[in-house]
From TrEMBL:
Residue spans of biased composition, Basic and acidic residues class: 384-399
Organism, scientific name: Trichinella spiralis (Trichina worm)
Glycosyl hydrolase family 31 C-terminal domain span: 915-1009
The protein, known as: Glucosidase II subunit alpha
UniProt region (Disordered), positions on chain: 49-69, 383-407
Family: Belongs to the glycosyl hydrolase 31 family.
Span of the signal peptide: none
Domain DUF5110, chain residue ranges per copy: 1040-1074
Database matches in PANTHER family: ALPHA-GLUCOSIDASE, BCDNA.GH04962
Length: 1209
């Protein structure tokens, strides 16, 4: 590491520092230069080992992070295995990296290199200069040591230019597109998947094979005139779905099915009735739902209320490649040659520089493309078999005007990628040959399809006719693009189709690489007449066509019938599981960066939040806290007493999270590495040797989490006796678990690697992360003997991951585009079963300006997971590093989040019961309002009532946006501005001013929202604090309801009945009104000292002059209150309603009025201590005139009391 303004360089800090190389300073440090005037770090030189840096606090009480290597630098460091950042020369020995006294092999000074390389570029690229001296000097120049000085300089400059291309955004050349994926690419004659478009499907059911047994329909499928190849089962599921399973009848090897993604074996239900004919079968699965199975060609049509909603193979694109024996002429017994460092480096430089010098061109030139299209058009009307060969016989007649026969000699079949596939310098051997599977699923009557996370794209899936398909293949993507179908960190092959009439869904259990085409057909009856004439008239209906393509695996599809959004969420969560109730602290603010330097840095950061009166709950440690990237360890110098550090944090009710990645540093002196090696717990390469890749530690091996014994062993490593220095207040972050392999194809693991049971990595790639965080969850659960709730964050995920871990959106950037895309990403994850999600606030890469950081906080507090995180190159992001005005704004935003924690926690509980998303798109709440189907900027939060969601947010996501338009749906509802409490009448669009301090947040009329207004250092200190009830009455001022869930926020005692789930309801008319609290689950019981501190009633249409509370002694007691008739808001301060109001079975607060009279109303209850009432006396009615054109309510009043004269507008 080097000072920004000095020439002094020191090692031992930063992500690839001397600590990672095992350089542990033991001798006293000697100061070599003072940089106090620079307000950065003082450099020290260790005697005799390594170096280290200590913080200079002369001008600041808090540490400032120096520059550090770029992501491109880190990549090549991993590729070449560097663990040092000293400009002095180093040599590799058998025991690791060590200091060398040899002269610099480059033969040039640091200053000379700096002048040559950085003068044309400027100081803005200083971090790349580190790469030149640290990495090229370290290894690359050791390879070209004998080159001339001019050649060395040329090569240095060459790599330097290549790196310039990498620092701005994702390098697409590292990742495949459809044309580079053999089973996806389009070829004129050899049609595998994307271009498999037969007029008539070659697949059909053998009628004689059909049988029905209770809940199952069974049959065999043949392709063309061939023998029976596949077996099929259709199951009726009790949850309101059907499951289609198709696999090889007599496979050469079993295909992997990721059944661990399911929440147990689905419960089946017998068909209500079955009608089996010679060419079709009609299966009634529920009173209003049925499935029609067509035999020839194979097709499944699904009906709800006699309306066709989904069709499998309606376009005839189902295609199943069976395993085959490898042809003898392709046999190659030669052992694959290992990739050398030079191969990796050359490939990286070549692709990077070519991309910089010349934009990537399409796979075909226009002439070739036109020729190929012509050939394709000639073959329309020809049915193809499973190998792409045309079928033209009596059983598959051509349509009128059909195509011509294929000339077998016109062009050779494209066999590239069938048995061996190449990508850059990587070779993927395929010992079992092509085994892809694909099918089309049509959603009839739908124009909007959602799902397929994870992509940085719009909420509604785009039409992919002119682009690559959406891709699901878990990858480590640096600074990903927005508005792109590229694969990211997680995969959930799940789609939801929605219209004003119905909501349906489908998900496919397949963990291999997947590509997904989406197209929206206009209203056109011709398709329906052609495919569904048996059931349909000439009604015009839109069709959303989707094409699902996987590299391997079987067909295991679940069709969800809905028909409402909440039905879909219930059905999906029943099958795949819900996100368990999180510990209460998880909803607070998370403070993180890569990396807090040492224990002192942690202590100062923690104290800074207290000093500036900003609450937070969790502080995070990235990989630098470990001893040389050995997970489950601590740096013995920087984090010498981790248990004490954690105890100091937890004394304030706070927690700590530490990263634990799945790769294991290859170190023969490390017991954990050796133990797993001896137990044969690592993933193997194609030659059945332990696979070695490169990641943060340098050389690394990867645990095989497909092995149940490995998962059990790994979970045990979280025991306090194994994970030294950990405590029950330390939780876990599983990163890099796609898995990320810096030296591998697409920054991941080779697909022909071998896992437990002989499975190829291509079969299990997308579930590797699932098995990793499943093991972590089990480990945290077991370390407390099942008493404490785990908290796990994962980057990689699959269907079912929500049962074990929470998710964030990955390595985003400090750009407005990444802020904007965070909303649709979180919403998409939410409807796909991942309710606890969020984005790195401020962006992981780059430095946000003050407007961007404020707006990002305003967005982040309305995502379930609220974390500020950034990489080590960025400036510090603690609020006090910004201006006083910005700091004050950030403090207020965080406090808003903390005030709403009871509402968030209630939403989390209700998700566990019904699978409802906590943050959800507008169309899920207002399913018939077509104006909301494309809405992704505003969204609903929580499940605040039994009947409706209460809060709607529309954060600002564009720079300089001084106002936004907000659509207020539901003509039956009134909306209230959360901050001003002014009512706004819907439906319609209103323009809301958005100065920097303004967040457009609205509460829906008819809701009761519980909040806590007392601010503590952390949420853990607020459990016994009182509540405020915000009651937003409906348009008529007669009704509101809401729920509140309480427990200890930490343990599993709620499963033993130790909780409260309260239902609040306000009802009234022109004469009286009452607020009642009822226990939703009478057998539940939880003791709390929390009480109702304040009641705020919005939209009250009467003016009270006196308020009393009546307790069990029947003696009225006057209460303080304020009535704002401009806002029609009544505030009852300190009603002195104790915790019994929450704990008793029925409790009532009564607001009673009659013109000119006062009265007392008591409500009987079994528990007399629960009876209490508030009486409002001498009320006069306020009449409401609603001006719908302006969207405002105009109030006027008759017989005004003197104190109100002149106050009513």
């Amino acid at each position: 590491m080097q000072c920004n303004r000095c020439d002094v360089v020191c090692s031992g800090s930063g992500r690839r520092g001397g600590r990672a190389a095992g350089l542990i300073p033991t001798a006293p440090k000697t100061k070599i230069k003072d940089h106090t005037s620079h307000n950065i770090q003082r450099c020290y030189l260790d005697k005799p080992q390594g170096g280290g840096c200590q913080q200079d606090n002369t001008e600041s009480n808090f540490p400032v992070r120096p520059p550090a290597p770029s992501p491109a630098t880190r990549w090549l460091r991993a590729v070449v295995g560097s663990n040092s950042i000293d400009v002095m020369s180093w040599s590799r020995g058998e025991s690791g990296t060590k200091r060398s006294n040899a002269p610099n092999p480059v033969g040039r000074s640091t200053a000379e290199l700096e002048a040559d390389l950085l003068a044309p570029v400027g100081e803005s690229l200083h971090r790349i200069e580190f790469f030149i001296f640290e990495q090229v000097n370290l290894l690359f120049f050791s390879v070209v040591f004998k080159f001339t000085s001019k050649m060395r300089l040329f090569l240095t400059t060459f790599i330097f230019i290549a790196l310039l291309c990498q620092v701005a955004a994702v390098d697409r050349s590292k990742f495949k597109n459809c044309a580079q994926s053999s089973f996806c690419r389009q070829c004129a004659y050899f049609r595998r998947q994307r271009n498999f478009k037969p007029t008539i499907s070659p697949y059909s059911i053998l009628p004689q094979s059909v049988s029905v047994s209770g809940s199952g329909f069974h049959a065999e499928i043949q392709c063309g005139k061939g023998r029976s190849l596949l077996k099929m089962t259709l199951q009726n599921l009790q949850v309101g779905a059907v499951r289609l399973i198709i696999d090889e009848k007599e496979p050469l090897r079993e295909r992997f099915r990721p059944l661990q993604a399911l929440n147990g074996e689905p419960v089946t239900s017998d068909f209500i009735s079955t009608e089996i004919g010679s060419d079709m079968a009609v299966l009634k699965v529920a009173a209003n739902k049925e499935v029609v199975v067509m035999f020839k060609p194979l097709r499944l049509d699904m009906f709800v209320d006699k309306n066709l909603v989904m069709s499998f193979n309606g376009d005839g694109r189902f295609n199943f490649e069976t395993f085959k024996e490898k042809p003898k002429e392709l046999e190659d017994n030669a052992e694959p040659k290992p990739l050398t460092l030079f191969n990796r480096l050359f490939d990286y430089v070549q692709t990077s520089v070519l991309k910089w010098l010349k934009p990537l061109q399409s796979e075909q030139n226009p002439a070739d493309e036109a020729s190929e299209n012509k050939k394709y058009e000639q073959n329309q009307g020809v049915a193809y078999d499973r190998d792409g060969n045309p079928i033209n016989d009596a059983e598959h007649p051509l349509e009128e005007g059909g195509g011509v026969e294929q000339n077998a000699h016109e062009e050779e079949e494209d066999t590239d990628g069938l048995w061996t596939e190449h990508f850059h310098t990587f070779t993927d051997s395929k010992p079992y040959g092509p085994s892809s599977v694909a099918a089309d699923i049509s959603f009839i009557g739908f124009r909007h399809v959602f799902g397929l996370p994870e992509h940085a794209d719009s909420l509604v899936l785009r039409d992919t006719n002119q682009t690559d398909p959406y891709r699901l293949y878990n990858l480590d993507v640096f600074q990903y693009e927005v508005d792109s179908p590229m694969a990211l960190y997680g995969a959930a092959p799940y789609m939801i189709a929605h219209s004003a009439k119905a909501t349906v869904g489908a998900f496919w259990l397949n963990s291999a690489e997947g590509w997904f085409d989406v197209s929206y057909e206009p209203d056109d009856s011709s398709l329906l007449k052609n495919l569904f004439s048996r059931f349909f008239a000439n009604d015009k209906l839109p069709v959303a066509k989707t094409h699902w393509m996987f590299e391997t695996g079987s067909v295991d599809i679940f069709f969800l019938f809905g028909p409402k959004p909440d039905d879909i969420f219930r059905q999906y969560s029943t099958l795949t599981g819900v996100n368990p109730l999180p510990p209460y602290f998880a909803l607070g603010k998370h403070v993180s960066r890569w990396n807090f330097i040492d224990m002192n840095d942690v202590r100062q950061t923690d104290a800074g939040y207290d000093l500036h009166d900003i609450p937070y709950d969790v502080i995070w440690l990235d990989i630098e806290h470990t001893y040389g990237k050995r997970y489950f360890t601590w740096d013995p110098i920087k984090f010498s007493n981790p248990a004490e550090m954690i105890r100091n944090i937890s004394a304030k009710g706070r927690k700590m999270v530490a990263v634990v990645d799945p790769h294991i540093k290859k170190d023969e002196n490390w017991d954990l590495y050796q133990e797993a090696l001896e137990k044969d717990y690592y993933v193997k390469d194609v030659n059945n040797r332990v696979y070695e890749g490169w990641c943060w530690p340098g050389a690394a091996v990867y645990l095989d989490f497909l092995n149940p014994e490995v998962r059990k062993w790994y979970a045990n490593k979280y025991q306090f006796s194994e994970y030294k220095g950990s405590t029950e207040d330390l939780y876990v972050w599983n990163d890099m678990n796609e898995p990320s392999v810096f030296s591998g194809p697409e920054v991941s693991m080779p697909r022909d690697n071998i896992h437990f049971g002989g499975l190829e990595h291509r079969e299990v790639h997308n579930v590797y992360g699932l098995f990793h965080h499943m093991s972590t969850f089990d480990g945290l659960y077991q370390r407390s003997n099942g008493k404490k709730r785990p908290f796990v964050l994962t980057r990689s995920f699959f269907i079912g991951s929500q049962r074990y871990a929470n998710v964030w959106t990955g390595d985003n950037a400090a750009q407005w585009s990444h802020l904007r895309i965070s909303n649709p990403m979180v919403l998409s994850l939410g409807i796909a079963g991942f309710p606890f999600t969020g984005a790195d606030i401020g962006g992981f890469f780059g430095n946000p300006d003050e407007e961007l950081i404020v707006r990002w906080y305003q967005v982040g507090i309305f995502h379930s997971f609220f974390r500020v995180h950034s990489e080590l190159n960025t400036r510090r992001r603690e609020p006090w590093f910004f201006s006083e005005q910005t700091k004050a704004l950030l403090r207020d935003i965080v406090r808003l989040r903390y005030s709403l924690l009871p509402y968030w926690y209630t939403g989390c509980y209700e998700h566990t019961k019904n699978g409802w998303p906590i943050v959800r798109p507008m169309w899920t709440e207002f399913p018939t309002d077509t104006a909301l189907f494309n809405e992704e900027k505003q969204f609903m939060i929580g499940r605040g009532t039994v009947q409706r969601r209460c809060l709607m947010a529309r954060p600002v996501t564009e720079p300089g946006e001084s106002s936004v338009h907000v659509y207020l749906p539901d003509e039956k509802s009134e909306w209230y501005d959360w901050f001003t409490h002014i009512p706004i009448v819907g439906p319609g669009v209103v323009q809301v001013a958005t100065p920097l301090e303004k967040i457009p947040l609205f509460v829906r009329g008819g809701c009761i929202v519980p909040i806590k207004e007392r601010m503590r250092r952390s949420s853990g200190l607020s459990h016994q604090d009182p509540f405020t009830l915000i009651m937003a009455l409906n348009k008529d001022g007669t009704f509101a309801n809401g729920t509140l869930y309480l427990d200890d926020g930490d343990s599993y005692e709620y499963k033993n009945g130790q909780y409260l789930y309260q239902y609040f309801v306000y009802s009234g008319d022109k004469k009286s009104g009452s607020l009642m609290s009822t226990t939703m689950h009478p057998n539940a019981n939880y003791n709390t000292n929390a009480w109702i501190e304040k009641i705020v009633i919005l939209g009250l249409q009467f003016y009270p002059t006196d308020v009393h509370v009546f307790r069990a002694d029947y003696v009225p007691k006057k209460l303080n209150f304020v009535f704002d008739n401009q806002k029609m808001m009544l505030t009852i301060r300190k009603p002195e309603v104790p915790y019994l109001f929450l704990a008793c079975n029925i409790a009532t607060v009564i607001l009673k009025w009659r013109n000119g009279l006062s009265s007392l109303v008591m409500r009987k209850s079994e528990n007399i201590d629960c009876i209490m009432s508030v009486v409002l006396e001498k009320c006069q009615k306020i009449f409401i005139h609603r001006d719908y054109s302006s969207g405002m309510a105009v109030r006027f009043q008759t017989k005004l009391p003197p104190e109100l004269v002149g106050r009513v507008r």
